[in-house]
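=== Structure Prediction Worksheet ===
Name of assembly: unnamed complex
Input type: mixed (protein and possibly other molecules)
Chain count: two
Listed entries:
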Amino acid sequence: MNINMTLIGQTIAFAVFVWFCIKYVWPPISNALHERQKKIADGLDAASRASRDLEVAQEKAEQTLRESKEQASQILEQANKRSAQIVEEAREEARAEGERLVASARSEIEQEVNRAKEDLRAQVSHLAIIGAERVLEASVDEQAHRKLLDELAAEL
Amino acid sequence: MAAGNEVSSTYYIQHHLQNLTFGKHPDNGWSLASSAEEAREMGFWAIHLDTMGWSIAMGVLFIWVFRKAGKMATTGVPSGLQNAVEMVVEFIENLVSATFHGRNPLIAPLALTLFVWILLMNTLKIIPVDYFPELFARLGVDYMKIVPTTDPNATLGMALGVFCLIIYYSLKVKGVGGFAKELSLTPFNHWALIPFNLVLEIIGLLVKPLGLGLRLFGNMFAGEVIFILIALLPFWAIWLLDVPWAIFHILVVTLQAFIFTTLSVVYLSAAHEHH
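=== Predicted Assembly ===
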């Protein structure tokens, strides 16, 4: 337990070890530590950024989906409306066509009836003349009695 | 029998507390001391070979392990040795950043060296007290005290190193005038009290390394003595006391290394402060 040169020796050893530590030990470990720290911080940063991006993208996708759904429903509605319109139009047209057909048929019938009436009338007048001739035993001058016959026919 | 037992116990204790000393004996010249008296007679011009050898071995072990880890150090996922080394480095870095308020790239490596080196030297104490003295006795070496921190030369030597740095940085940061002013005008800022201040401050300054070295030495030496006393017990009782004491010493070993390191950093931080 004497104080002797060991004291100086230990101080020198201490100085040498500290110098060695400063020169060769501390820098690589400290650098690696700090670099890793930075890397981890960067990684965490990137992760949080990515999650934020994902959120934004999700929101965007959702919005797009919502918009397209809306659009689709709009288109569907339009199509429905249009088809109803078309059906309505077709129905209207058909109805009009039918009416037209009915009207034309009716007018044709009327014409036919008229013609038949005319015919009938002519025949009646003719028969009347024949009857009158039979009755009078003389021919009746058709020309002379045309007026009379016409009046008769009109009365029928 | 009782007296003989006492003598052999005393001899055993003294033998275990004697360093292997090489020095200049007034009669024998440069030689190994063969007894405590001879070692004492050598005076200052002697060196404790065991203290120097074991402390340098521990220092080299520290440098080798940490250098190896430093070479392997990558920014990827660390493992094994690198993990352990990085834990220590980070611990020291936190300690320094918490207590040292200047900017000096020397302080952190210094603290790391102090902490790990003292820790390794202290840890040698966990090795049973008889192993190495017995082994070296068989090899023909009389004395072998393997724990360098139980030698005041070692602890005071490191404290002396720290003290030199304190003086160096005090002068460098504050200048000679600033340092002299700090010594002479604190704590009482009055010209009439300059001598009083000087005595107070210089004692305070000198007590720093002395306290640093003696605290570590005292703790380790006391622990060593207790280990030796326990080793004198009957063989069946040794483990009963040795095991708890060794477990307790795991705490003391770490704590003393930590205290030495922290106080060194604190003293150096104070040396860097302007007033």
